[in-house]
Amino acid sequence: MITFPGPASALVTLPVAPDRDGIARVLSLERFAQEDLPGVRATIPSFNRLLVEGTPSRWDPGEIRSRLEAAARDALQAAPKTPRAAKVSLPVCYDLDLAPDLEHLAAKAQLPPRDVARLHSTPTYLVLATGFAPGFAYLGDVDARIATPRRPSPRARVPQGAVGIADRRTGVYPTEGPGGWCLVGRVPSVLFEDAAERIARFTPGGPVEFRPIGRKDYEAECG
To answer: Can you give the pTM of this predicted structure?
Structure first.
């Protein structure tokens, strides 16, 4: 489906799940838009959607729709290709006082907290989208055994570097603020203090891993 939210923008929604396969197909469509559409100024991929922004003087909605529809069909028919990108490795401490929801999630999953931490840190995740806050990345997919809904009541304050889970997604809060994800660990906040670096760290389709560390290493990295 293609809609036009602005005079020189198009939003393409692919009929795929918002997961690894979906973002790979969206990124294939993004490459087409960047390389072959006239007057494209910016593209924003997210889950199973792509926003394309163009230059008004070079924007022909009829032509844009026709070419994006053809490219979307190609993206759906071809085998999805995950882009090559440098892996982001984030150290995370799963100590209970840094993970206020870990015990509750462990009890719900009928697992020891250490097994929840192991299941969370085992996969290599993909960045499915960025947003919510500058430097926040939606990562997927979390092991189904530890997937959990958002908290019924969001916290007024979530610390910078907190690692959360919501459904099959996980992510790191890049700044202090309110939030409703279940908190299962903490990344040293020093890794998110530089605004430009935290915004540039994650790109859609890029791989991310969580590397468990002990409390001493966590304190050392925090300075």
So the answer is: 0.85
